[in-house]
Each structure stands twice: as structure tokens, then as C-alpha cells.
Amino acid sequence: MSPPSRPVPAATFGRNFGRYKDEAIARGVVEVSSNGRPVGAYLSQEEYERFCKLKRRSEDD
């Protein structure tokens, strides 16, 4: 996974979803902001699976 890039404004993310989908596949995660504040992230399938695995592991402890 590449280092995180700058957050993408939500409106830009929505208008250019295909571009950011490809970026998530390449980089792992695209952070989305609204009014300059982080509001969410779009993850590649690989990152999502990694997240779920870590979450299950922490719930088992």
C-alpha cells in the first residue's frame, strides 16, 4: 500500500468515482472529506478484507 494521499472532497469523489475507485485499488484507501474534515474512506477490497480480519481478531481477544 502506498502512503496516504490528501483527502478528496466528497463532491469531487462523487463526480469522479471511477478515478477514485482505481486509486483505491492502487493505493488501498482514498480518504474523503467534507468542509475540510475527514468524513470517511473508500477502501479497496484487499484493504476491506484486511480490516475485517483485524476486527475479527480484536473481537476474539
TrEMBL record:
Keywords: Plasmid. Belongs to the phD/YefM antitoxin family. This is Type II toxin-antitoxin system prevent-host-death family antitoxin.
